[in-house]
Structure formats: C-alpha cells, structure tokens
Amino acid sequence: MVKVTLQNLSKTFGGKTVIRDLTLEINEQEFFCILGYPGAGKTTLLRLIAGLEKQDKGDVYLDNKLVNNVHASHRDVAMIFQNLALYPNRTVFENMAFPLKVRKMPRTELRNRVQEVAKSLSIEHLLDRAIANLSGGEKQRVAIGRALVRRPQVFLMDEPLSNLDALLRLEMRVELKRLQRELGQTFIYATPDQLEAMSMGDRMATLSEGQLQQVDVPEVLYNKPKNQFVAGLLGSPAMNFMEGSCRQSDGRTLLDVGSFQIDITRFHKALERATGPELILGIRPEHIKVTRQRGPNSTCEVVVYVVEPLGGEMILHLGVDGGLIKAFAPPGFEAKYGDHVSVEFDPNRIYLFDKKTEEAIL
User: Fold this and answer.
1) Residue 168: φ, ψ to 5°
2) What is the CA radius of gyration of the chain?
3) Are 88 and 42 in contact (CB under 8 A)?
4) Residue 254's beta-bridge partner residues?
5) Per-block mean pLDDT, blocks of 10 residues, the chain (362 long)
6) DSSP 144-171
7) What is the C-alpha separation between 361 and 353, in angstroms, rounded?
8) Which pLDDT score, from 0 to 100, does residue 26 have?
9) For the chain, which terminal residue's Cβ has fewer other Cβ atoms within 10 angstroms, N or C?
10) How many Cβ atoms from other residues are within 10 Å of residue 315's Cβ?
11) d(Cα 107, Cα 101) in Å, to the nearest integer?
12) Domains along the chain with CATH numbers
C-alpha cells in the first residue's frame, strides 16, 4: 500500500497532447477513480503510472520514491486491462499462477497463494477449468485474481467491467469495493461510467482531453461542480443546461432564458465573477417539479416530447425554446406526447456558469 504522486505530467503522441501538465496525489489505501469520456487520457495516465509509457515531462512517485527511470517490471504495480488479457488455452489455475511462476516462486507457496486468492473470489471450484469455458463474470474474477496473487503495491484498473452486462457490473462493483477494503491496498480505477466512479471511489478525478478538471469526494463533485463539464459529466440523467442573458428590471437582476425569466438578484455577489451578461443556467432533473396545472411559483409551461417509464419512476423529455430538458415525474403522473405541463425549478438548486469560460459562478 503506497501513495502515488504525479507532478506536472505531460504526454504527447504524434503531435497530439494526451496528458497536459497533470498533478495529482492519490493516498495509500484509497479507492481512487479517474472519470472521463473515451479519449480523455485515462488509459495513458494508468500506463504512465505503470511505466508502460514514458512521460515527455513530469515525475511519477510511488511511496515518495521517484520511479521515472524504473522499468515497469520493477515498479510493483498490477494492471487489469479492459480486454482482461487472459490465456484462453490455459486453465484458471495456470492463468492466476503465471506471474508467480515468472518470479520462480516455490511450487507449494505458489499453489497456496493461488488457492487463497481463488477462495476470496469464490472461484476455487473453477481452478481446473479452461478460460474458454468461463462466463464473462468468471473471467473477470480470474483477471482480478491474477493481479491479487502478486500482492503488488498498487492496483491499476482500466475499465475492467465495461464488457459485462449491467447486472454483473453492479455485482462486480460491490465485489471490488469489498476486496479493496479487505486488502487495504491502493486501487486506481479508470472508467467512463459515472455510476461506477461515484459508487466505488473514495475520491475521484474528472479528466477532459488530458486535463484534470476537479478532484474531490463524489458528493462534492456532484453538488459543487467546478465547471460546466464536471456538472454535465455527473448525474443520470445529466444536468439540464439553458443559455440565458442577465438584464436589469425594476432594481432586480433577471436571467432571461427566452420563454421564461428567473430572478437571480440574491446572487449578486456571485454574478460579480461573471465575464459578461451571458450565462448558462443549469438544473438537475430531480430538482424540477412537474405539475398539470400552472401554480404561483411555476417557472414555465412546456410540451411533453418523450416519456421514459422506468418502473418506480418516469423521466419526461420536455420541449423548451426549441431544446429539450429532462425531469422526473411524480409517482402516478400520467403524460403522453404532446401534453402541455407546467414545471417549477427549485430556486435553491440552480447552477450558473459563465458562458465564455464555462466556470461555475454559483
């Protein structure tokens, strides 16, 4: 269990900068998630930590030891790849034992180590079975087991659950979190799935085009996003965004979004940070109240375009000023395409972003 420190890392491939001046500290015994869309630089970042790629500039420290010139085979990290990289013509035991055989571990100790890890993953009954005859979830456990038997300082995981079905992904998220707690090891987990990152990570980093956007615990990133990118990355459904312009009227400051206006006078201190009158209004679907009749606090009337029944809840896609916003309908609410309904934005849960910089001002 070690602390991982990255200082001013940069990496370029073919003239394209994939990691940009990135500085990050990951604590020992931490389950740390790196969240970003495909192409954000997540895999490259893991490969730089593992030593599989050489950074153009910057430093990598493992437990305060500079490892820039330490070969990947001597960094004592284990990496689990998206494609699992198992040997299909070998048994589960042979796959798990392979990294120990390379290190010439005595046969008795090797067998005991593999059986111990297999038992912790509930795959001891599969040790003699060929990889080709396993299910996706069983293969996933074998890949994790092969990393565990090494007892490395750091575990690096590159989208390891992306090829599993939804139910199995949920099961494996719980399993990985349990394992990390029991092992007390440092896990660094890269994923494009914000549900995985938020449910598993003690802390998480958001990455966009190789640049670090925000690092914090999941609750802070969700409730206090630093910019529009982070706000839109987290949440299911994602946050709604609408362009607006500030104007003064009778001593009040109004945000004019087109079909409606919102009084933002009380946010005058925050508005001083804006570079101009053009702002982006953000609000999450769960903070929009949908009703049949327009009430005294209603924000505006909208048209129902799409209804998504999800069992215990329903998501409505609502037309506003030529665009769409999403909102959760209350239990028992009935709606169909073309219906006119009223929405009310929770005034205490709106977000304001500078249109030019995309930085949060509220």
Assistant:
1) -70, -35
2) 25
3) no
4) 247, 263
5) 94 96 97 97 97 97 95 92 86 95 93 92 92 88 89 92 82 87 92 96 98 98 98 96 95 93 94 96 97 90 94 92 91 91 95 98 92
6) HHHHHTT--SEEEEESTTTTS-HHHHHH
7) 6
8) 98
9) N
10) 17
11) 8
12) 4-223 (3.40.50.300), 240-354 (2.40.50.140)
Round to whole Å and give the CA distance between 210 and 204.
15
Amino acid at 84: L
Q: How would you classify residue 152: left for phi > 0, otherwise alpha for psi between -120 and 50, otherwise beta? A: beta
pLDDT for 120 equals 83
Torsion angle, alpha carbons of 329, 330, 331, 335, to 10: -40
Q: For residue 279, what pLDDT is reported?
A: 98
Distance CA 114, CA 150 (A): 10
The residue among 266, 343, 243, 333 whose CA lies nearest residue 302 is 343
Other C-beta atoms closer than 10 Å to the C-beta of 16 total 9
The residues, ordered by sequence, that sit 6+ positions from 229 with a Cβ below 8 Å of its Cβ are 206, 208, 213, 358
- Cα–Cα distance, 3 to 64 (Å, whole number): 7
Give the pLDDT of residue 284: 98
Taking the C-alpha atoms of residue 99 and residue 77, their distance in angstroms, rounded to an integer, is 12
* Burial annotation 204-226 (CB, 10 A radius, 16+ → b, else e): bbbbbbbbbbbbbebeebbeebb
Residue ranges in the chain assigned as alpha helix (H): 42-50, 92-102, 107-120, 136-148, 166-183, 194-200, 218-223, 228-233, 268-271
108, 262, 263, 320 from 257: Cα distances, Å: 71, 8, 11, 10
Give CA separation, 127 vs 16, 34, 38, 70, in Å: 44, 32, 34, 34
Q: Which amino acid, residue 12?
A: T
**CA torsion through residues 150, 154, 158, 163, sign:** positive
Q: What is the DSSP letter of 27?
A: -
pLDDT of the residue at 220 = 98
